[in-house]
Design a protein that fits this description.
406 residues, alpha/beta, 6-stranded parallel β-sheet, 3-stranded antiparallel β-sheet, 9 strands
Length: 406
């Protein structure tokens, strides 16, 4: 047979045969007769050619994609993790509140597609506090309008999931709307929720100038998750306790405590149960002032040129602890365009932490809301309206509990 012929023709006797084979052998390397050797070489060339063509054909054909798991299967997998007591951290973004009537920040209808981001900086506020409020903050974050927004089914589902027996669920939100803590279903949001980007209706004080930039340099390089500077935090805390304004770092200012006219307080008060009379005006005549140092007071919101360490409200050290100790990371309605999602995803990649991503956008990439599953990132994308998928997750969890599976 042809295989016997090839074996007979290629049986070598000299040492170094294997080495020479790599570079092409001469007739001197074999003791077989010339006819047998020629037939063997011809067969080898034909087999090699067929193999090469087959390999190229295989590479030219698109790989068959593995069939994805159903949404139900993904929800059951996550519900199992939650009900079994795994440490689960939810990171929520603007997509969570869209069904409450609040516009997202990114995308075609997003705020940053119509407003230059440099409007939302300390630099812009210091340059003209009144213009900051009248041209940027009040038109896009009107407290009175926000007071009419209510938590939707997705907010309610999260509050219920966080109170399940054995559940160890915490929430870090990028949203400033306060809807997580306004759900009808009670949950311990005071200890299980971090408002990483601030809260509408609260205000703060900032120094007249910053002593250094908000870069990531820090002497504590061993931390597995880094969202802010411990060095700057210690400096700010020490300064506040000695001579600086307490509202620069340690505390937030309520509307009622601001030094401002009654008209200004009416415009800046976000609650419907306001102690101030209604106001028809939509702009301020003067900016609100800090009650301690009398400087103009910006909203308690993380501005683009601020770090998470810039104020204690953002609780960056607690965020670092929650993320670094998480067994599961769950993203909800985020565009993955801010520092906290970048840091959390990189931690998941480095430590092989499973990720679940609830998003309405199935597009993968820099402009999409889905994540690519690869050798570094174990992710399940759960595509759909979060006001539908999160309540379904709650239902699966509740079914598990009722069936006493946990």
């Amino acid at each position: 047979c042809s295989s016997d012929l090839a074996q007979k023709g290629r049986r070598g006797k000299r040492r170094g045969f294997g080495k020479n084979c790599m570079h092409g052998n001469t007739d001197d390397d074999y003791e077989g007769d010339d006819e047998t050797l020629e037939k063997a070489n011809a067969l080898t060339r034909r087999v090699s050619s067929d193999s090469s063509q087959s390999s190229q054909s295989s590479r030219s054909r698109p790989k068959r994609r593995r069939r994805g798991r159903s949404v139900r299967h993904k929800l059951e997998s996550l519900a199992h993790q939650i009900c079994s007591g795994k440490r689960v951290v939810l990171l929520t973004g603007a997509g969570l509140s869209v069904n409450s009537g609040i516009r997202p920040f990114r995308g075609k209808e997003g705020l940053w597609s119509q407003v230059v981001w440099s409007s939302a900086t300390r630099e812009a506020f210091r340059a003209d506090p009144l213009a900051f409020y009248n041209d940027f903050w009040l038109p896009h974050f009107p407290p009175k309008k926000y007071s009419a927004y209510q938590p939707n089914a997705a907010h309610e589902a999260i509050s219920k999931i966080a109170t399940l027996p054995r559940a160890d669920v915490t929430v870090i939100t990028q949203n400033i709307d306060g809807l997580h803590s306004a759900t009808r279903h009670p949950w311990p949001h005071a200890s299980k929720l971090i408002e990483a980007h601030g809260r509408l209706g609260l205000y703060k004080c900032i120094p007249e100038s910053d002593s250094d930039t908000d870069d990531d340099s820090d002497e504590e390089e061993h931390r597995p998750v880094k969202l802010g500077s411990l060095r700057k935090t210690r400096h700010k805390a020490a300064s506040s306790s000695k001579h600086a304004c307490d509202y620069e770092f340690n505390a937030s200012i309520n509307v009622t405590s601001l030094l401002a006219s009654e008209k200004t307080k009416r415009l800046l008060n976000p609650t419907t149960k306001s102690p101030f009379a209604p106001c028809s005006s939509t702009s301020l005549s003067s900016p609100p002032l800090c009650p301690h140092c009398l400087r103009p007071a910006p909203p308690q919101a993380l501005l683009f040129d601020e770090g998470y360490h810039s104020h204690s409200h953002y609780q960056f050290q607690k965020m670092e602890s929650w993320i670094s100790n998480a067994d599961i990371l769950v993203f909800v309605g985020t565009s993955f365009a801010v520092a906290i999602t970048d840091v959390a995803l990189e931690h998941a990649r480095n430590h092989q932490i499973p990720v679940y991503n609830f998003n309405i956008d199935s597009k993968v990439g820099h402009t999409g809301g889905s994540l690519e599953c690869n050798s570094r990132l174990d992710v399940e994308n759960i595509i759909g309206d979060v006001s539908d998928t999160l309540p379904r997750l709650w239902t699966v969890c509740d079914d598990f509990i009722l069936k006493k599976r946990y």
